[in-house]
## 1
Amino acid sequence: MAYQNLVRRIKFLIASARRHGVGHIVQVFRQAVRRRRYARQQHPSPNLESFQRQFTFFRTPETFVADFHLATVPRLPFVAATGATLAGIPASANFLGDAERFAAGNILLLGCQIAAPGGGYDWHRDYGSQARWPLDHFARIRFMDGDGADVKYPWELSRMYWIAWLGNAHRTSSDERWANEFQRIVSDWQRQNPRDQGVNWAMPMEVAIRGFWLACGYSLFAGAPSIGSDWWKNYLLMVWEHGDHLSHNLEYFFNLTNHYLSNCFGLLAIGALLHTHPDGKRWFADGRKWMIEQLSAQVMDDGVHYERSIGYHRLVLEMYLIALLLCQRAGDPFPEPARRKIERMVEFLCDYLPPTGTVPQFGDSDDGVLLRLTEPQPLYDHRGLLALAAVIFQRGEYKQRAGDFSLEAAMLTGDAGKDIYDALESRPREESRLYPDGGFAVLRNRWLHVVADVGPIGLHGNNDTLSFTLHTAGGGIVIDPGTFCYTRDPERRNELRSTRAHNAPMIDKTEIAPFDGLWRVKQDSTNVKILAWETSSNGATLVAEHHAYQTLNSGSITVRRRWELRGEALSVEDEILGSGEHHVEVRFTLPGGLSVTQAGPTQATINEAEAGKGEAVELECSHPFTIVPGWYSPSYGVAEPAWWLVMSFDTSAPTRLRYLWRVRKQPHVS
C-alpha cells in the first residue's frame, strides 16, 4: 500500500509539472516552507501608534481615522444606495428582521437552528453536534477527524457575512443600535479569536472571506457616529492581521483551486481597504495579479470553472465580479482579455439558470456563497448575481434572465447601477449551448430546460458523468441530489456522491470512479467523449459516452447516452455497449413536493403537488420501474423527501433503455 501511494504521488507530481511547468512545482515547495516557518514563529502585532504611522497620509493620531476615511471611501466594496432603490427590492423587507435575529443569537445556519441567547456566540462550536475546537495555535488544530463534527459550522459563522445584515439595518433605519451591535459582536469575536489562535485561523480561505467582510464592515459603518476613533483603529489593525496571516499561508498546492483563488481575493479586498499602508498596497497588487493569472489556470476557455461544481463556479464568479469593481475604483482595471474570460463565466451561469432560478447542484454544493446579504436568501437562486453582472457588462440578455434589479447589484453598484440596469433592453437568450471544455451542455426551448454533465469527475465533482437535470416553468422535475454534508456523516456524504444517486446508469453496482476518502476519487477513468451536438430552434440533440466500466469482471462496458429535446418532449436513450451479463440500475431523483402517480409498470404522471400549480409531465420508459420514497439535500445540512424512480434488472450487453418525458401543456420557460 505504501509503495502504491508513493507511485501515485510521483505520477501526480509528473502530471502537475506537465500541466503547470517546473516553476509551479518550485513555488509549491517555496510556499510550503513559508507556511511552516510562519507556524513555528510568534507574530506579535505592531502597537497602534507604530501601525498608524505606517500609513502614507498620517499626520496625527487625532486625525488618523478622519484622514483614513477620506483616502479610502472611493475604494470601498459597498456603495450607498438610496432608500428608493432599496425599497424596490423585495429582500430589503428582511433587513430589520435579520439584524434582530442575529443580535439575539437566533439564526438558521447550514440547516442548523442556532440558539445563542443575547447574541453570545461560541465561535469555536459546531452547533449541530455541539463539538468544540480548543483555543490552540492554528497549526495544531485538527478539524477533519471524522468524529461526527463539522468544522463548516464555526467557519460559516465566522465568515461574518452577518455584517451586511447589521449594516443594512443601520443604513435603512439610521438606528445606532445596529452600529453598537456591530461593535459588540465583532469585539466579542476578536476577544475569543486572538490572532493565530483557534479553528477560525486554521484555514486560509476562511481568513480571506472574513477579511473581505471586515473590509465591508468599514464600508457599511464608517459614518456611524456612535463608533469612536479608538475602536476603528483596533478594527483596522485586526484587518491588517488577517492580511498578514493570509500572505504567509497561501494555499498554493499542486492543484490550485477555489481555495487559492479566495486567498488572492482576500488579499485584494484587504488591500483595497488598507491601500495607503505599504503592506496593503502590496497585497492589493499581488491579489490582482494572481487573480488574473488564475483565470487562465482555473477557468476553461468556455468559461466553466475547472473544478466542475455549479456551486463553486458561482463562488469563484462572485469573487471575480467584486474584484472587477474594486480594481476599477482603484484606477487599475482588469485587462480586457481577463474581462472577456469573466464574461464567459457569466454566460455559463446565464445558460445553466433554470426558469425558476434554482440551479442544479452538479458537483459539491456546500452553500458557499460570498454575498449572503439576508438570512433567508435562497442560496441556489443565482439570478441576483446575474443582475449584478448585467450592470457590470451592460448585457440585456443577462437582465432578461435575471429579472428584477437585485440586492447584490444595489449594494455593490448603488443608484448608478440601478440607472444602468433600467436602461438595458431585455434580450432573449434561448439557444441551447454546449460547453465542451467544461463538460456541460444546456438543452432548452420554450417548454423544457435540461442541463447535462458530459465531462470528467473534476476536483469538486461527483460521480455524475452523463447525469442530467430537467426543469419546466414550474420547477425541477429531475434534480441533482445535492451534498448534505462533508464530514459529519461519511456514509451519507458518499451516498450523495455516488453513481447510483445521479440520474445515470450504474453497472454491476460499481462506482464509475472509486472513492478515496470524502473528496477525492482514486482514479477517473471516465474518458468522456462527446459524439454529437446539434441545435435547432425547437431543441437540441446531444450524444456522449464514458468508458469507466472497461475493467468489469463480467466484460467491458461503454455507457452511451443520447438526449433529444424536441418541442414539449425530452427523449433520453442509454446504450450499454459491450459484452457479458450485467446488472443495470438507473435511478431518477424527483423532488418530494411533486405528486408522482404510476400509471403502469413503465409509465408515470408527475404533477405539482399544489392544486392548479404547474402542468403535468408524463414519463414513459422502456423498462419497468418502481417509485420509492427517498431523500435529497436542497442545501447543506438539509435533508428533504424525494421520489426515486428506480429501474433495476439483469441483462446481457449490448442493451438499450429509453425514457420519454413529455409536457402536456406548459408556458414559456425562458
## 2
Amino acid sequence: MLPLTMALITVVIPVAFCLLGNAKPSPSSQAHEYYYNDTSPSQVYELIGYVELGTPVILKAPVAGYDLIVMGSTKPYMVPGAPIVPVKILTYKLPYGAKVEKVEVTAEVARLEGRFRLLPCPQPQRLGSRRPAPAYVENPEIYGSQEPYPGRLYEYEVHRGVDPVTLERVTFVVVRIFPVQYVPATGNATYIRAARVSITYSQDMPAPAPTSTIDVVIITNESLFAAARELASWKNASGHVAKVYNVSYILANYPGSDPPEKIRNFINYTVTNYGTLYVILLGDAELVPVRRVYSAEFQEWAEYNPYVECDLYYADLDGTWDTDGDGIYGELEDQVDGFPDVLVGRLPASTLEEAYAMVAKIENYRPANRWFRRILLLGTVTFPEYDPLSPEGEILKDYLEANYLPENFSWTKLYEDLGNLTVDNVVSEASRGYGFVNFAGHGNTNLWYLGAGGYFTTSDVYALTNGYNTSVIAASACLTNDFADTDVAISEAFLIHGGGGAIAYLGAAEVAYSYVDYWVTAGLSDEMDWRFLAAFKGLEEDGAIPTPGLMHAMAIEGYLAYHGRNDVDDWFT
C-alpha cells in the first residue's frame, strides 16, 4: 500500500485503495430530506431541501470572560482570531457535469436575547515546535466592528470528484449555512431555526462510456519495472484490469510544460478514455516525479521549503492548479478544486528490493482476519505550555474511540499521561499486529516524539515484527511523511520494512498544525486524522469496502466541505 499524506496541499501520498481489495459501489445518502422539480424537456432541474437547525444554547467558554453559542448538529466555524460561531454543512451529489445555475437559502431571522462576548478561534500551533504562539487572540478589526459576523447567511461551492461510496464521479454542491450572526462591538446576535435550500442546475447528455477499461494504472521507473509488472499481474488475477507505464514513455508522448504536468495529462487521458479509477505511483520522488505546490505559510521561515510535495495534484484533475499562470502551483488564489477525481497512491521505493518488499505486503495483506479489527491509539500531552490538564493528543484519541470506532473493534491506548507511552511499549504493541495505529503529537522526518516516553525513530520501526499483519497508520505530527526531501522518512520506513510495519501511512509532508485544548478536534491536522478513521466507519456502514484510498478521499472531501479555502492554514492542511 502507499503512504497517504495529510492534506490537500501539504500532503502528498493518498493511499492504496484498490490494493486492499475490490471496492463495491453502494447507494449514496444525502444530508437531509430533499426532492426534485424536473422542468424537462429543457433539462433544468431544481433540488429543494429543508434543514432544522434547532435553538441556540449559550455556554460559558473554558476561557474566562467569553461565551459560546452552540446549535443542534452544527459545527464550530473556525477562523483564527475571529468569533467562533455555528455552521451547518450540507453536501449534495448531482450528476457529473451538472452545471449549477443558482443556489438560494431562505430563512426567518429572530433576535437572540442577551449580550455576549464570543470566544475567538485559537491560533494554529505547529506540531513540530515546543515554542507555541499565543492561543486566544482577538482580531481587532472583527471584534471592534459594528457589522455582523460572519456577515452572510450562507455560501456555497461546486466541486467535482469521485464519490467514495459509489465509485462514480459526481458534482458536489457544498452549502454552508451560518445560523448565527453576531455583532462583536455590541454583543448582540440573531439566529435562524430552520432553512430552505434550493439548487437549480442544468445537465447535458452524459458522455459515452469508454469502450475498453484499464481501471488500475501503475506508473513507474525502468529500474522498478519488474516489481511493477508483478504487482499488475497480481491485480489482474484479483479481478482488475491493470497496466504498467514507464515514466520515460509518458514524458515522451504526452504534452506538458514539465514532467508532473505531463504525468497528470496522461492520467487525465486514461481516466477519460479507459475509466481509470486507481493510479499507483511506484517509485520515490526521484524516480516518479512529484508536483511541488506553494505554501505561503513557509515563505518567511528559512528552515522550511515553501514548495511542498503533493500527489493530490495527480488525483484532482480539474483545472490546472495554476489559474493565474505564474508557474507557481497550488496557491490559495489558484482556485484548486481539491476533490479527488481518481484515487492516487505512492509506493515510495528507491530500489527494486524496496519495491518488491512493498508488493509482497500488498499480496499478503489479509484485513478480513481477526487481527485487523484492532486499533492502537498513541496520544501525548502535546502543548503542556497551555494546560497540562488538556492533553491534546490524548483528547483526540479519546474522541476517535468515542465517536468513530468501527463496529467490533477493540482498542489499546498508550498515553503520555498514563505513563505507558514509551518506545519499548510502542514496539511491543505494534509488533502484535493492529489494523490501525494512530499517533498524535510532535514529529519530525525520522521520528515520533512520545513526550516523556522519548523518541520513536526509524530504527525502532525496523525492530517491528508484525510480519504481514501490517497496519494502516495515521500520524498527526509534523514532517513524518516528508518523502521527497528526506532519504528515508519514518513513513517510508514503515512501508519498506519487510519484517512488518505498515501497509499505508497518512501523515504530513511538511509542518502540521493543531488547535489547543478541546478545540483539537475542530480543524487542521487533527481533524484530518479523525476524519480518516471516521471514513472507515462511514464507508463500512454504507456497504462499501473501506480501503485507505477511499478513506483518504472521503477525509479530504469532508474537510474541504467543512472549511473550504477561506483560510491559508486550512488549505495548507
## 3
Amino acid sequence: MVNFLQTALLALVASNSATARPNPISYPVPKPDPIHGTSKYQRRGLTLEGRATRETYANEAVAGITALHQWYGDNGLWDNHWWNSANVITMLADFQAFAPDQVSGYTADVFPKTLTNAPSWGAFTGFINDYYDDELWWCLAWIQVFDVTKDQKYLDMASSIFEDAKKAWGQPACGGLYWKKGDPAVNAIENELYLTAAAKLANRKPSSPSGGYYFNEAIKVYEWFFNSGMINDEFLINDGLNSECKNNGAQTWSYNQGVILGGLTELTWSSGDAKYTTLAVNIATAAITKLTNADGILTDACGTCQGDSAQFKGVLARNIQFMYNRANGLTDATKAQFKAFLQLNADTVWEKDQEGNFLGSVWSGPYITADVNSQSSALDLLVAAAGVS
C-alpha cells in the first residue's frame, strides 16, 4: 500500500494555519490505487464476491482522512466540534491498529497536539465539562490511543476523566448517570459509555488503583443497565428513561446499539462469562436487521440531518468491527453477517455518498454535503470494513 498520509498530510500539518480550513483545498488528496474492477465512480479493487479488498477500503479511508484534515485546527479539534473530535481520534487510532504505516506519521503529531491543546478551547481542563457523555467519549478515545501507542499519558488521561463520572454515578433517582450535570435526564448513551469505559479500564488496569476497581464498577453498571428496561423486547436500546424510571420508548439511535458492544465484549474477557457477548450479538444483530433499509443500508431517524446525529452510524460500525475481531466465541454465521453488513455499507457509501473524497450523512445516497461529523462517521465505516476484510 502506498503510504499516502505520510507524504500528503505531514507537510500540511507543519504549515497548518490557525483557521485550518484552506479554501480551496490546497494539498494533494490521495486517491485509492486502481487495481481491478470498476464502480460507478472510480476503479476499485474487488474480491471474487464483488466486495472491495482490504487494501481498497484502506486507501479510501486514507483519501477520506486527508479530506477531513481541512477541518483540523491548531486547537486540536476538527472545526471546533468537541465530542465529535473525540470520535475522530478514536477512528484514527482504530485505523492505526490495522494500517500503522499508513497513518502513524500523521497521528504522531495529531494525538499529542489534541491531548495538549483541545482542553483550552472551551476551558475544559482535563476534558471535563458539563456533559458526562462528552467526557466519556474522550475517555474512550484516549484508551484507544493508548492501545496503539502504549504511551501511558493517554491511559492516565482516560483514568482521570473516568473519575469525574464515577463520582456522580448512582445519584439520579432512577440510578445510573445523568446526561448533563444539573439536569435530571438519564439517557442510555452516557451510561453505555460509562460501562464501556469501566470495562476497558478493567482490562488495562486490573490492579490499579486497587484490585477490581474498574471491573466491579463495570459489573455494577451492567446489572443496573440490564435491569433498567432500556433494552427493549427487540434487543434494541431506546434513548433513555422517563420520569417514572421506565423505558421512554424514544428513538433507537444507531450509536446506542454500538457503544455497548465494546463494553460487553470486554466484560466477557475480564469475567470469562459468555453472557455478555451473547447480549452483544443479540443487540448487534437486531441493529443490522431492524435499523437498515430494504437494501441493507444503515439508517437513522432524520437521516439527511447534519449535526450530531450524522456521527451516530459510524459508532455502530466501529463496534461491530471490534466484536468481529475481538469477541470470544462468535459463530461463523455471526461473523459472516457482520462482515457482509460492513462491506455492503462501505461499498455503498463510496459509490453513492461520496464526492471528491468527502462523505455525506446518507449512506444510501445521494451525496448532499459533508461536515466533520458525517466525514468521520463514514470513515469509521471504511476503517471497519478494512478491519474485517
## 4
Amino acid sequence: MRTVTVKSPGSCGEFIQGIYQEQPCLVSCPIDLYSNIRIVEGPATRMLDTKAVQMLDLIFSEYSIPREEKHHINIQMSSEIPIEKGMASSTADIAGIARGLSAYYDLGLSDKTIAELCVFIEPTDNIMFERLNLFNHVCGDVLMNFEAQLEAQILIVEFKGAVNTMNFHRQQDGYTREEVDRFEAVLKLFKQGLQDKNLNAIGRACTESARLNQKILYKPHLEALAALSEEFGGHGVITGHSGTVIGVLYSEEAFDYTAFMQRFLNVVPKKDYDALFLKNIIPGGLRVSIEN
C-alpha cells in the first residue's frame, strides 16, 4: 500500500513584492514552519477544506484520473503555519496536495506545473520552488531566476488581525510610475545582495519593499521594527505584503537579541500581537517521501 508524505514550507511573507515589467510579482521568504500532507489508500477519515477540494478536483480533471478513485484515497492535513497572516499557509496546503497526488499517481508534475495549478485556485506564493525566483503570483510565470540562495535567521512577529488573500488581491490599488521605478531599484538591490551574499543589502531591499506596500496594506509597527532592527544589529524587515506578519532579518553574530527584546516589549503593546517566533530562512521546495 503506497503512502506519500509531503512537507511544504510556509513563509514570512515576501522578501520583495511589486510590479516588474507591468506584471505583479513577488519573492517569497520560505521558513521552517511546515504544512504536512499524508496520502494513503483507503476511505477518507475527515472532510477537506474548500481549497484542498478544489486542488483535488483540478488534478483529477486535468490528468483524467477516474472520479471513483476519490473514494479510495485518504488525504490527511496538518499545519504549523498561522492562517491569514501572509505566511503562505494556503499555498503550502494546496501545493502539498498537488505534489502528494503527483507522487501517489506517478504524474511527474514539475514545480512550475504545480505553481500553475495553484494560481487556478488563488494568487500563490512561490514556496514550491527550491531556488528563489521572481514570480508572477497571479498567472504563475517565473519572471527571473536567482542563482544564489539565502539562509539566515528571522525573528517573526505575528501581529493580530487576519487578511483574506483573495479579497486583498482584488482590492489592490495600482502603483504609480514612480513606485514602479522604486520597485525596480529594490529588485536590483535585492539581486545584487544575493549575488554578494550581503545581508545588509538584502535587508535594505526588503525594508524598502515593505514601505512601498504601506499604501496597499498599512502596518502600524513597520517603522518601529525597522528602527529597532537597525539599532540592534538586524539587517532589515521582511513583511507579509498581503498579511499582518513582520520579520526582522538577522545573523546571530551581529544581532543583540536581548537588547532588541527589551526595547521591543516597551515599544510594541502585547495587545497588538499574538506570538513571536525565532525561525530560519531556508530553501523552498516541497519535500516528498514515498513508502510502497
